[in-house]
Design a protein that fits this description.
It is a single chain. This protein has a domain of 51 residues. Helix content is 66%, strand content 0%. The protein contains three helices and no strands. It is mostly helical.
């Protein structure tokens, strides 16, 4: 509403331009380390890091859906 009124302090976010560059490598290392160690503090820490690092990929999936929906908005099935 603030953007439409011209009172927004920040520009609107274009979710279609979201990208992840090095997140996948960090997620893979944390997940593999947690799967290998599994026990103790280090294993729990690695698995929790992997769980937290999955969240940006969920947003990337939403960005993909938004981009595809925006492209197909005018098409009829």
């Amino acid at each position: 509403m603030l953007t439409q009124a011209g009172l927004a302090v920040r520009p609107p976010i274009d979710i279609g331009k979201l990208s992840l560059r090095c997140g996948s490598a960090v997620l893979m290392v944390a997940g593999l380390a947690g799967a290998i160690v599994r026990e103790g503090t280090l294993g729990i820490l690695c698995l929790n890091c992997a769980i937290v690092l999955i969240v940006p990929f969920a947003f990337l999936g939403l960005a993909t859906i938004h981009t595809l929906a925006r492209r197909r908005a005018g098409e009829m099935y």
